[in-house]
Each structure stands twice: as structure tokens, then as C-alpha cells.
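Technical note accompanying the year-one report. For the benefit of new consortium partners, we illustrate the data format agreed upon in the data management plan: each record pairs a sequence with a C-alpha cell string. No post-processing was applied to the example shown here.
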Amino acid sequence: MAGIFGIYNVNNLSNKVLSKTANILFKESLTRAKEICESVYCDTENNIYSKKSYQNNQSLKKEFQKLIKSSHNKNINILISQLNTSSEIDYSPNINLVSKLNKTLVAFDGIILNNETSLNANELINKNLAQFNNKIEAIETILKKTLGTLNLAVYDIEKGDFFLASNIGSLHYIINKTTGSLIFASEKIFLYKVVKLLRLKISDIKQVKPNKVLNFKSLKIENTGKEKLFDLSSKLKTIETPFINNLKNLEKHNFDNIKTNNIQYCKNCILPSSAPFIKFDEDGVCNYCTNHNKIKFKGFEALKEIADKHRKSNGEIDCIAAFSGGKDSSFGLYYLKNVLGLNPIAYTYDWGMMTEIGKRNQAKILQKLEIEHIIVSANHENKRKNIRKNILAWLKDPHPGIVPLFMQGDKQCEMFADKLKKKYNIDLMFYFRGNELEIDEFKAGLAGVDNPYPQGVLQNLVAYNKIKLLIFYISRYFRNPALFNKTLSESIIAFYSTYIQKHEYEFLWH
């Protein structure tokens, strides 16, 4: 799920204000997606102009600015844009002329899972909009029938009516009463700079509540023009994946000669003797079992006290929850909202390696709980190239302790989480990692660091072990100079964010 943004009653804005507003919305929305931009504007003669680009971040900006300049002096009534990623699974085209007869322009984003195909996602919307004369009734029906997440903007070209709807509340808008213009975006914070530009207040930003349809009427636009759809799409850029055809450096590792018959297994947990720092007592039980300390839970009352301190009675957002779509975070979201009575927003850092199953799970959970979703999306192409570079470099001198380097790209998650807390002015942030079943000491153990993660939280690593881990990484870099590549700066940021930067989070499982 990426994001949509737009301006209704554009012709009431000056060219200067339009350009600034549109560019603010575009720039802010880039946090959700960076690879595909699709924009449509409709003038007061019902001519429709479309532009779609598949390019990198900077090129998208230039193409979008050209579109805005081309709209000047054309009496534009509505501008709608969407940013998307090349790996989206929501199967959405996503801005289209629903029907020539009904003259309805629709933009939507989300992950619609009714049949998990683009045809059915579009059919669900198009069929109902064509079937009902009453647009509100049609949109309400669409929301009821949708399985997954859906944010929807509908423009009735003939009547000039504009509708916003969402089943999770991931749409926000402001109305400039002076000009009668409406500006909307997928996240509240995207509108902060627009508010400043228009000299409005943050409190003027309103949310489209889950499963509610908002109708914004304007002056009736006479149907005097002809439909014009200009396809200015550039060709989709193909990302080439190099074939790893040279594994000479692995030939010296004769894996067939590894003796497995002498491996000892713990009689209690079946950990093998190949696990780092493992020792067995005379009964055949490993030291991980004998030295295991259970997490000392703070208890429900301590958690309830935190919730009571931050809970807002006016329905405003009172906490942020990191959400991957897995079992822990899905249950955690349910617990925050339905047990503790908090009103969270879900936060996901999409670094290009999220699975389709994870995204589908997110859509289903968010729809059921009616929780807004904040997405920060990295440049997927760049992130995947970095993984490829580090794997190819690692193959020159393989060592299991350096494997976490492949996942350096997701470590900015906490940096963006801290920024969100600041932007939304929210102190309470929940993470759902660190349960007793997530034991991954072996990762740092392979790097020579013993018992590294107290209670399953990386930042709890003691200073001595942080230094030891850093020395290990530095030594491996100098032993394998191929690791000194373009990903080095991201590796440094990843280490800083994980082990040095302080984060104030609550861990539900503690």
C-alpha cells in the first residue's frame, strides 16, 4: 500500500500556491513510495490529462513538476496523484476513468484481497460505482465488500462532486475556506507544511474516519468538453539481476568432508554442538538450558498504568506500534486497541524485503481493527542492489558471523520510528519483539560475542560486547576488502541505529 494525494477545486488556487502545495504533497509522500508516480488532472471542460512515470526519485520529481506547470492556466478542477513501489502487491493501476457513461474518476490505494488479482480489485470498485446512481451508496457498498485495506478518492466529473473514503482511516484532509479548495493525503504529517503555507492550523487537518464516506460538493461543472486521455507513460525500467557464476572462492571449502556423525545434541533443547559457545554437562544438557533465565515480566498492572497515562479520551492517536504483519505484532495491535483501549497507529518500514504474506496479513488485521497505517518505504531497487553487493563480497571470504550484514537495510526502522514520534508528538511507542521464543544469541555468537541479547532486545547489549562486535566487523572488513563498497555508509548507520542510538520503546512481551 503506497499513498494517494490530491487537490480538489484547484482552479481556486493561484499558480504559485498550486505549485508549492502540489510539490509539498509529492515530496512528503515520497516516504511511502519512490519508484512509480501516476497523476491525473481534470479541467473545468472535463478534459482529462494523465501522466505516469517509472523512474528514480529525482526523475519522478522532475516529471511531476512538468505536469504541474502544464496544468497552469487550464482551469483545473481536480488533481490526483499516487506514488507506488515496483514491488507492490495491491495490484492497483490505480487512477482510472471508471466509465465513459458515468464519467467518474477514481483513485485508490490499498491491498485488496478479495481475489488477489488486479482485475477483481478494479471490478469491485468499477462495478459498484456503475451499478448505483447514488455515489455514497456505491462507495459504502465497496467498503463493506472489500477484504483488505482501501483508501478511495472518487470524482464525479459531470456533477463536480468529490468523495473520500477509507476503511482504516489512512486519509487526511484540510479545507481552505478562503478558496474553497480541499487538499488530501494519506498521512496527517504530509499536510503540516501545507497548513503553514496556507496559514492554517494543525487542528484544521481532519481524518477520514474508518468506513465513513465524505462528500464534498462544488459548483456544478457543465459538460462542454470531450474526454482526452493522454498516455505519457515511459517504459518500465527493468532491473537486471546478475547471475552468480563464479564461486571459485568456495571451492576450497569441501563441505562433503564435514563430519556430522560426531555432532552432539542437547538432550533438552536439541541444540547441536556446532552452536557457538555451547557446552554440555555430564547429563548431556547444554549450558543454554542450564543458564537460561526467564524474562521477569513487569505484569499487566504495569502495562495498564502506562496505557492509562497516555490514553486520550477524544479519540486522538495516543501511541505508535511497529507492525510487520507477523503473529507477534498482529496480536500486539489487537491487544493495544481491544484490551488496553488505546488508539494506535501502525507503523511499517518497508525496505523492499517484506513478503507478500506479511503485506496481506497487515491488510486483513488493519481492516478488522480499523487502525491507520503509516508506511515509510525505502528505495527498493537500491536496497536490493546493496544486498546483492554484500552477498557477492561475502562470497569472496565467507564467514557466518558477517551474514547479518545482508540485513543492514532494515536497521533504519528505528530511526524513522523516532522521527515519527517527534512529528506526531507522541511519546509512547510499542515494539513486539523480545518474546521468550525468539532466541537469536547465535547470530552474535558466530561473531565471537557470548550471550549478547538480554531479553531479546539488541540495544540492551552491554558496552563491552558492543565494542567486541564492532572490532569483529572491522577485522572482517580489512580481511575482505570487497566489503568496502557503496554499502559501507549504510552499514555504519545500521550499527549506530542498532547499538549506539538510544530508543525509548515499550516492549509488550516484557
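Partners are asked to follow this layout when depositing records. The radius of gyration is 26 Å.
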